Amino acid sequence: MEVLNSNVALLSNYEVLEVLHEVRSAQDSEGSKKSVSKLRTNLANITYDVEKYLQGTACSSQSPEVIRNFLIATRSLKITKIEKLQILNLRPTSIVELQLILEEVEERFSEEEMQEMTNLIQELLPPTSASPQAEPQPTS
Amino acid sequence: MENSYIYPGDGASHTRTTFQFVVFRPSIEEILEGVVLSASSSGLQVSLGFFSGIFIKPENMVAGSYYDETEKVWIWNYQEEHKLFMDVGQKIRLRVISESFVDTTPSGPQLAAEHQAAVAAAAAGSVVAVAKDPFSEVHPYTIYGSTDGSGLGMISWWAEDEDEDVKDEANEGQEDSQSEHLEST
User: Which InterPro entries does the protein's record reference (chain B) (predicted)?
Assistant: First the structure.
């Protein structure tokens, strides 16, 4: 086996989720042929596990429009592609979380700018259904 | 896929295929959020559901963290009155600091050695039920992470308004973990 290109593209969590949906619909439409389903159990397992993980993250409530709006709005900000990718995947809700994603954040942005970014993120990216923000008080 | 060929001397048909993989491979410095899978004196193991090979070594935890042998849990001694627990099953946020790829396909001598060991164990008649330390097992792909930094560590520590100081957040986190602690015992 020969690797032709080791890094074709970076996929956001949302894109991975879309790929998994396609895999799953291809599996479902194939029906249950015994010999095929034996080979496919590994694929089915990994598809299920990854989907389950992604459903609990911010990408489960994203759509191409949401992502496009986000990219347009952040075009003017000086953040790198991989930082935008992490913001899409993690949906930071506080400055502390944002500081983890952005490098050399003290030199690049002021606190107001970071607060603006946090507000922008909250506005443009919908929260996960399981997000703790939905609850007013942490349940003990 | 290109056309299939049959090579002389070999009954099977060979087909040259090109395919694309979707791989999971976080970059160094990337932030991941997962769940604590297990704790031992060697550190914490974190799982993302589909991938469990993420480890946090003690030297990469917040200063003041220690392992409690009786409760089998890692604790961050944030302040004398406020101990924060890193409970199994709770959400945790970490930064990827390194990764390791190991080729675990068994080679000839290794297979023979494993076979001999299995035979010897069976002959000795002992059923050894050793709780394997996940840290000592060899995995094909391992991610090492750090929880040393603002915003890293248990998500419950940082979940409040960031205007409040960490002490208040720590209090909430501690109460949550403590009540869960009581439920689990």
Answer: NA-bd_OB-fold (IPR012340), RNA_pol_III_Rbc25 (IPR013238), Rpb7-like (IPR045113)
CB–CB contact A140 B18 (8 Å)? no
Partner B contacted by A9 (CB < 8 A): no
Nearest alpha-carbon partner for B93 in B50, B36, B52: B36
Residues spanned by the domain of A46: 13-27+39-59
State the ipTM, two decimals.
0.72
Running DSSP on this structure, what letter comes out for residue A133? Answer: G
Chain B residues whose CB is inside 8 A of the A46 CB are 50
Distance CA B114, CA B104 (A): 13
Contact B158 A57 (CB under 8 A): no
A80 and A114 in one domain? yes
Question: Is this structure's pTM higher than 0.90?
Answer: no
Residues A55 and A73 in one domain: no
Structural domains in chain A (count): 2
Residues of A in contact with B160 (CB under 8 A): 138
Partner B contacted by A130 (CB < 8 A): no
Q: Which residue has the tokens 């496919």?
A: A40
Q: Are residue A71 and residue A114 in the same domain, yes or no?
A: yes
Q: Is A116 helix (H, G, I), strand (E, B) or coil?
A: helix
Q: Which residue has the tokens 């392992």?
A: B67
**Structure confidence by residue, pLDDT tens digits, B32-60:** 889 999 998 888 999 988 888 899 998 89
Same structural domain for residues A96 and A55? no
Summarised one tens digit per residue, pLDDT across range B164-178 is 344 444 444 444 444
Contact B159 A138 (CB under 8 A): yes
Whether A32 is in a domain gets the answer no
Kindly state whether residues A23 and A75 are assigned to the same domain.
Answer: no
- Looking at the domain assignment, is residue A111 inside a domain? yes
